[in-house]
Specification:
Helices cover 39% and strands 22% of the residues. It is an alpha/beta fold. A hairpin with a 6-residue loop joins strand 5 and strand 6. Helix 4 crosses helix 5. The chain starts with a helix and ends in a 7-residue tail after the last helix. The relative contact order is 0.15.
């Protein structure tokens, strides 16, 4: 694990997410993480653009965690993410029940849709904040009504935006993707790596004598 950590050269992270998928991806890279899920009221977001929603909610989560845990984990870089699934710019959130899951999957059947993941990195000490997003296009194969019902009944859709998980049984629904696979899982790793490297450069400049971060 030490060799992996030396390769990515990331700072210790405080992850503002309870997602087991994000946790598994970061641990697979050997990242040093502590998990402290952020409590943000996503229903109060008045934005309609899926890209802006994902970035806004990621930022809310990161700043919320910064205020709450700065004294205990101030030396850690806060990472927050929010994944939004959209069809024709109409956001499909997490289903409220099995019927709602069936509704969403039926909408996506045989069609392309977009998956956005907003990322926010926040340094509680320097208060430097970086926000960005990744978008991946996903196409479902044409699904029969019995297939839709069987998948919804598995329970897998219930905690996932768009009512499916590409890393699980939902992989059998997806015909093709255009873009980052890990983004569909909820954490675009290449985008995240680029943002962490930029954050480290900014923190280095700010900490140097006479340095300012931009």
């Amino acid at each position: 694990m030490a060799k992996i950590s030396n390769f990515i050269n990331w700072p210790p992270l405080l992850l503002a997410s309870a997602s087991p998928r994000r946790k598994a991806l970061l641990e697979g890279l050997g990242a040093d993480i502590i998990i402290k899920p952020a409590e943000v009221d996503e229903e109060n977001c008045v934005l309609s653009d899926p890209q802006k929603i994902s970035e806004y909610l990621a930022g809310q989560k990161a700043r919320s965690l910064g205020k709450k845990w700065r004294a205990s984990f101030g030396s850690r870089l806060i990472l927050a993410a929010d994944t939004v699934v959209a069809y024709r710019h109409h956001v499909l959130g997490k289903p409220v029940d099995e019927k709602d899951a069936r509704r969403m999957i039926k909408i996506l059947s045989g069609r392309w849709h977009q998956v956005y993941t907003g990322l926010c990195l926040y340094d509680p000490l320097s208060q430097i904040e970086l926000t960005g997003h990744e978008m991946t296009r996903v196409k479902f194969r044409q699904l029969s009504l019995p297939e839709i019902k069987r998948y919804a009944a598995t329970g897998e859709p219930m905690d996932k935006a768009g009512a499916y998980g590409i890393q699980g049984l939902g992989s059998l629904l997806v015909e093709r993707i255009d873009g980052c696979y890990f983004n569909v899982m909820g954490l675009p790793l290449v985008k995240l790596n680029a943002m962490i490297q930029r954050m480290e450069n900014l923190r280095c400049k700010k900490s140097s004598p006479g340095g300012t971060a931009r």
